[in-house]
Write a structure and sequence with these properties.
The complex is a heterodimer. Chain A is of the alpha/beta class. Chain A contains 23 helices and 28 strands. The N and C termini of chain B lie far apart (92 Å). Classes of the chains: A alpha/beta, B alpha/beta.
């Protein structure tokens, strides 16, 4: 439904609701008003009864007086005197006037003449026609309101004929007795009893509509004239109405003199001839307004606010939905692009693997070609593995499931690992490489080593990857004091002289599948996920990553991480006081190495070149103060390390231990170095612990040579239990281990593995490689079961996870289950050997 | 477009909401209450009128300022005789009808004694809105009564009939004669009509009285004689009586037709509303009944016409505007709620309220502005030298009786003009 239609429907509903409320209230109001009007009519009828009773009561008094006067043959004075005695009401009076003269006596004197009791009705028309006065007891003979001629007050009179004795003639004389009551007094009593009708006014009219008693709101001298003056009615309908008023009981609406709608209730006064009691009341006083405008106003305002709120919310959600739809479309597009890129990036190495495998099969006899194909297959496989790992990582990052698994690790090992990993590429590309560390006093940190490695390797491998041969890559790592308590600030800066990045690319370089392209490096292989993962991991570790780059000039990445310091640190490393000569053309390295050596308690002299060093050694030798150790860089401009060693050994000192520094794998030069007279090797960067270990080893076992890398004799004859359900995997691992003389025994699942361990004799197996996902019993459960065995040997046997579950949480899970290590599939045999040796070493210690 | 629709719908909603509430504040310009508007009081106005709807309408208007004030009009029976007693009685009226002749009359001294001095500056009555000729001051220069209506004499003119017959309303005696002749020639047997059954308010007096006053106004000695009912003053009636005679003799007035009009008020009006009477001679009091009777006249309801009340052009210079108070109010200084009574009078004695009341009652307003009612507008054009104020001249009631009866009898042909002149002072 369109937004406009929704708004219209909302407004329509609101208006409909309000209309219903108003109409219902109005209807209720009308009904209430109707009931009130009926109540008003009934009250008017009640008032008529009261009035009738009152009039009858007053008339009865008058009748009693008249009968008494008539029975006593009184003179006018006697009659007046009698009434004076009988009268109890203070404001009431009585007039007795002769019918022929309409003059006589009042029971009360005039205000301005206390002795004057005379009264005359001769000049007013009240008694010109007395036909309305009936005989005693026949009816209520009440006059209209008139002016009392004695005191000028508006009054009414109850009348009766009396026959008086005329003392002058001695004959009876007809007279009228008027019991006169002030209208004001009557009006005070003649009010509606109910408070709700306090504004109602009463009037009494005769058959002609003339007021006998007139309420303030009744205008004119005739009600009928009053009605005609303020209400539109034709003559006939008015006459009909007047007839109705004087003959029936009822009510109708009319306008009063102020133009206000009023209710007139009317009822004939039964005891009189043609009199009608009228009650007039403003209609607004009768109409009880059940419409609560405040309530309606609040409801309206509430509905309006609700409407506006709903509208706003609807618009907000619409906007959000639009954004979500846009994002979903973008995500879908991204997913498509991602899959497309994935497809491309996976197919490329797969193509190489399949193609090269095919070629190898076809050329099985050509050993050299097969070797080359296998080397390339390995490269493609490694690339594919990296790609899969990266994809899984980025997938985890984007789904928010990438968790850190912190553990205590050695930063020294991390750096060594980093250097070792980067060496082959550096060597291959023939680029300059420099790795400097400074102030690396704290070796053990508590962080996710795997992720930290990933960050460092990703940045460094990118630098190497994008640096052309002859270029230079330098790495600086330092530890500083962190603002976070218990942490150390690790700064990792990698600078290269590579192709650099354009600002446009830098703006989106952390997006997945972003690759800087350049004609010079178009052959560069990469997933385009490395930086995206790196950024996410740095963010996850609460660090910062900064990039300075200029197209064609190079790039510098700086990662700053605050990493917690591990509880475990190496004990104080201090060497015996000695003099050491450090030789390198790198001033910075000299500086940092000298500081590091000083922190070990050693006095370090520095030489910037081979000849300088040679001179210094010669002088010391001549003085009989040979240096305890000479630490010498392999690559120096004037005379390299090997040349310098040869000259030292031949020209100066043949006994001083010499450590050869190399940023590279020294296996290539190992033989030449030993031949030249080197006693040991130390890798750049020169960590405090490395120097401590190397110098100690050198001075302690001077004659010990470096252990050959390709000597696997220590592994010969080992027996390893492998829990692996997959036949191919079993075949691969057993074959690989067999290459090193290791015997492997298989358990097809966890349960069998546990059984074998239960039945195995002590020392049957050196360790167990445990797959995780297996039928019947998985690796974790099997490990827990083994750890629970009663046999101390069996329960403490080293167990290494060998699984395709390669995430850090999987590793943590394995360790928590009681395993001693983790090797991810696909397996790297070097890592397997390294792990076996580590276990073996730990077992020995 | 959608936004516009939303805004319109919102405005509609707000409009509906606001329509549910507020009530228009009544405009109350002009009179500014001087007392607490919540004051409760009872004010009674007494008079001799059976009805006084115009005054009752003023009560309602006053209630807009003082809603708790209860005001009523009461007719006193035997007004003139009872008034004195009522003013000091238990139920003292606050305001009462008063007449100029009460001042100085020993019989009405108790009444005069109760009159509050309305010219007292403390009362802040705007007496300047009253035409000066209507304000009667006593020997001490005090104003004790203030007119609320004035009375005059003239003729109701059926303007549409004049227009229909192609005639102009006459402004001089000659034109009047010519117009009457023209109407007669067109079949109107009595171009001028009026009440003629009795002397009270008869057409003869309405013609003669202004002329007699005009004669006396020019001769103070004659005025004194006339007030003394000296027969010698009879000669000053002659011009007036001769004019009455000529009107009848010239056929302007057909008395036989006039005699068919049963009373000097309603019947006169209803006869005029028949629509065939070009000019109906009457007093202003009669004109006051025209508005209400428009609806009561079937002929007028069927064929309404425009009419005005004009001076009768009795001379070549035109007619006279006899400007005399009709109803005057005095305040009973002994009444209850005197302060509020004065406030009501301050409210009433203004151009706006007096004109409003005159308009309702259709009487001549006592204010200086006569133009508000088109019926009386012609009197507003009478020059001041032809405006005569009996109160200012000092005309007494007996004098008016003489001219009324003399003119009636002459008009009826019961006596000659000469006889009437000689009988001045003896008419009863």
């Amino acid at each position: 439904m369109k937004k406009t239609a929704v708004i219209i429907v909302n407004v329509f509903i609101m208006i409909a609701m309000l209309t219903f409320v108003v109409l219902y209230s109005s209807s209720e109001s009308r009904r209430t008003t109707q009931r009130q009007t009926e109540h008003f009519e009934n009250t008017t009828i009640t008032m008529e009864h009261v009035t009738e009773n009152y009039l009858e009561g007053e008339q009865r008094i008058c009748d009693v007086w008249a009968r008494y006067i008539n029975s006593k043959d009184m003179t006018i004075e006697e009659a007046a005197s009698f009434i004076q005695i009988s009268h109890v009401l203070p404001n009431a009076s009585a007039h007795i006037v002769y019918l022929d003269t309409l003059s006589g006596l009042s029971t009360r004197a005039r205000h301005n003449a206390p002795d004057d009791y005379s009264v005359s009705y001769g000049r007013m028309d009240l008694l010109n026609d007395v036909s309305w006065i009936n005989e005693i007891g026949v009816s209520i003979n009440i006059s209209r309101a008139y002016t009392n001629p004695v005191n000028g007050e508006q009054s009414i009179a109850f009348c009766n004929y009396v026959t008086l004795h005329d003392p002058e003639t001695g004959n009876p004389r007809e007279a009228l007795m008027l019991r006169v009551l002030p209208l004001s007094e009557l009006e005070q009593k003649w009010v509606f009893p109910q408070e709700e009708f306090e504004n109602a006014e009463l009037s009494l009219i005769d058959a002609n509509g003339d007021y006998i008693i007139k309420g303030p709101s009744f205008k004119n001298s005739s009600f009928f004239e009053f009605y005609r003056s303020y209400n539109t009615a034709n003559s006939a309908s008015a006459q009909e109405l007047f007839h109705q008023i004087t003959s029936q009981t009822g009510s109708f609406t009319m306008m009063n003199s102020r133009g206000e709608e009023s209710i007139l209730a009317y009822t004939p006064v039964a005891a009189t001839e043609g009199w009608t009691l009228l009650s007039l009341m403003p209609a607004k006083d009768l109409s009880v307004k059940t419409e609560n405008w405040l309530l309606i106003g609040f409801v309206s305002a509430g509905l309006l606010i609700l409407f506006v709120f709903d509208l706003a919310v609807m618009l907000y959600f619409n906007k959000k939905l639009q954004m979500a739809a846009t994002e979903a479309a973008a995500a879908s597009r991204a997913k498509t692009e991602f899959l497309s890129t994935m497809s491309h990036d996976i197919r490329t190495p797969m193509n190489a693997i399949i193609g090269l495998t095919l070629l190898a099969e076809k050329n099985l006899d050509d050993k050299e070609s097969v070797g080359e194909f296998l080397r390339k297959i390995t490269m493609a496989s490694n690339h594919l593995l990296t790609l899969i790992n990266d994809i899984l990582d980025i997938s985890k990052v984007e789904s928010g499931k990438l968790n850190l698994s912190p553990l205590t690790f050695s930063i020294v090992e991390t750096v060594e690992n980093l250097v070792n990993l980067s060496q082959p590429m550096i060597k291959e590309k023939n680029i300059g490489f420099n790795f400097r560390v400074s102030q690396m006093d704290i070796e053990y940190l508590y962080a996710d080593q795997l992720r930290l490695n990933q960050i460092c390797i990703n940045i460094l491998s990118n630098a190497i990857k994008y640096t052309e041969p002859g270029g230079h890559v330098s790495v600086d790592m330092r530890e500083e004091k962190s603002e976070k308590p218990g942490c150390v600030r690790l700064t990792y800066r990698v600078s290269d002289t590579g192709i650099g990045m354009s600002p446009e690319f830098m703006a989106q370089m952390y997006q997945p599948f972003s690759r800087q392209t350049d004609s010079r490096v178009n052959s560069i292989q990469g997933t385009g996920l490395g930086l995206a993962i790196t950024k996410q991991m740095v963010d996850l570790m609460g660090g910062t990553i900064d990039c300075q780059s200029e197209l064609g000039k190079g790039t510098t990445f700086t990662v700053i991480l605050d990493l917690p310091v591990a509880d475990r640190q190496r004990e104080d490393m201090m060497l015996d006081p000695m003099d050491v000569l450090i030789v390198d053309d790198d001033e910075v390295l000299l500086e940092t190495a000298a500081d590091t050596l000083a922190s070990l308690g050693v006095t370090a002299d520095r030489a910037g070149s081979g000849p300088e060093a040679l001179g210094m050694i010669r002088r010391r030798h001549e003085m009989g103060k040979d240096y305890s150790v000479v630490i010498l860089d392999w690559k120096m401009p004037d005379a390299d390390g090997l040349e310098t060693i040869r000259r030292i050994r031949t020209e100066a000192d043949s006994n001083t231990p010499i450590l050869l520094i190399s940023a590279y794998d020294w296996s290539d030069i190992e033989d030449m170095a030993k031949e030249a007279g080197a006693n040991g090797f130390v890798s750049k960067p020169l960590f405090r612990s490395s120097l401590y270990d190397k110098i100690n080893a050198l001075l302690g076992t001077e004659a010990k040579s470096v252990e050959p890398e390709n000597d696997y004799s220590d592994l010969q004859g080992m027996s390893i239990l492998i829990a692996e359900d997959n036949d191919i995997n079993w075949e691969i691992i057993s074959a690989m281990l067999g290459m090193f003389g290791i015997t492997a025994e298989r358990a097809e699942n966890g349960r069998l593995c546990v059984e074998k361990m239960t039945q195995a004799k002590k020392g049957s197996y050196a360790l167990i490689f445990m797959d995780i996902q297996m039928p019947e019993m998985n690796g974790l459960e099997a490990t827990r079961a083994i750890r629970a065995l009663d046999n101390p040997w069996a329960s403490s046997i080293p167990i290494i996870a060998m699984t395709a579950d390669a995430f850090s949480e999987n590793i943590t899970e394995c360790l928590n289950a009681g395993m001693n290590g983790h090797i991810a599939k696909p397996i790297d045999i070097k890592l397997v050997v390294k792990e076996i040796r580590r276990i073996k070493e730990e077992g020995r210690s | 477009m959608k936004k516009l629709l939303c805004i319109i719908l919102l405005i509609c909603m707000l409009g509906l909401l606001t329509a549910c509430g507020s009530k228009q504040q009544e405009e109350t310009a002009g009179f500014k209450p001087a007392l607490d508007t919540n004051t409760s009081c009872k004010i009674t106005v007494v008079g001799s009128y059976d009805n006084f709807e115009a005054l009752e309408a003023e009560f309602d208007r006053f209630n807009k300022f003082y809603p708790k004030a209860q005001l009523r009009y009461v007719k006193l029976d035997d007004y003139n005789n009872v008034l004195g007693t009522a003013l000091v009685g238990n139920d003292k009226p606050n305001i009462f009808f008063s007449y100029t002749w009460m001042i100085g009359d020993e019989q009405y001294q108790p009444v005069a004694d109760q009159m509050e001095i309305l010219s007292d500056a403390a009362l802040k009555l705007d007496l300047s809105c009253i035409r000066p000729g209507l304000l009667k001051k006593d020997a001490e220069g005090r104003v004790l009564l203030v007119p609320v209506f004035s009375r005059t004499y003239g003729m109701l003119v059926n303007n549409d009939l004049f227009q229909k017959e192609g005639l102009s309303v006459p402004t001089t005696w000659t034109e009047l004669m010519a117009v009457c002749e023209a109407f007669r020639s067109k079949g109107y047997t009595s171009p001028m009509m009026g009440y003629s059954l009795k002397s009270s308010s008869c057409l003869m007096n309405t013609v003669a009285y202004p002329l007699f006053l005009a004669t006396l106004a020019q001769n103070t000695e004659a005025l004194a004689l006339a007030n003394q009912l000296d027969p010698a003053a009879g000669q000053y009636m002659r011009p007036a009586l001769e004019t009455v005679e000529r009107l009848i003799q010239n056929g302007c007035v057909d008395l036989s037709a006039c005699d068919e009009i049963g009373d000097n008020y309603t019947k006169v009006i209803l006869r005029f509303f028949e629509g065939d009477v070009p000019m109906m001679i009457c007093a202003g009091d009669t004109v006051s009944g025209t508005r209400k009777r428009e609806s009561q006249s079937e002929a007028f309801t069927k064929s309404p016409f425009k009419y005005t009340f004009s001076p009768i052009p009795l001379t070549e210079d035109g007619g006279y505007f006899i400007d005399s108070p009709s109803v005057q109010f005095s305040i009973n200084k002994s009444c209850d709620d005197l302060e509020m009574t004065n406030e009501f009078m301050r409210f009433l004695i203004t151009n706006e309220e007096l004109n409003e009341m005159a308009s309702v009652k259709r009487l001549v307003t006592p204010t200086t502005d006569l133009s508000f009612d088109s019926v009386y507008a012609p009197f507003g054009q009478v020059p001041s030298e032809r405006t005569l104020s009996p109160e200012v001249l000092g005309i007494t009631d007996p004098l008016t009786v003489q001219i009324r009866i003399a003119s009636f009898q002459v008009g009826k042909g019961e006596i000659t003009v000469d006889e009437a002149v000689t009988k001045y002072g003896s008419f009863q």
